[in-house]
Amino acid sequence: MRRILIIVGLIISGLVCGQQQKTTNFLPEISKYDISDILTQTKFKAENDTTIVERQEPLGFIGENYQRFYIHFISAIQNPTDKLNYFIYGKTRVKENICSFQGQMVNKEARILVDCD
Fold first, then answer.
1. What's the pLDDT tens digit per position in 42-75?
2. For residue 24, how far is the Cα from the chain centroid?
3. At 68, is the secondary structure helix, strand, or coil?
4. Domain map of the chain by residue range?
């Protein structure tokens, strides 16, 4: 019986999540910036670094067969009256089917990690 309890305890301890990461609300601050370039650029360079990072396309799946869904933002324009709202134009692809889209994207949440390594 003791061995069973030890094994069950080890299994449960491996499944238990650690502490939640502490974050601060960044939504009021992000409304002061125009992040439309971040949505459409293909490469980034850190401010104090020479490393260039290629932006990955958003990852998504669609349908019952979980087909890979590709999405590419071509244009993003910040709404002048609502700074958290962006007008988006882009293209999507599922297998060989490519479609254009346009719509709005609204930032509802923005957080910064606190005490991050």
1. 887 767 777 887 877 777 888 888 999 888 889 9
2. 17
3. strand
4. 24-113
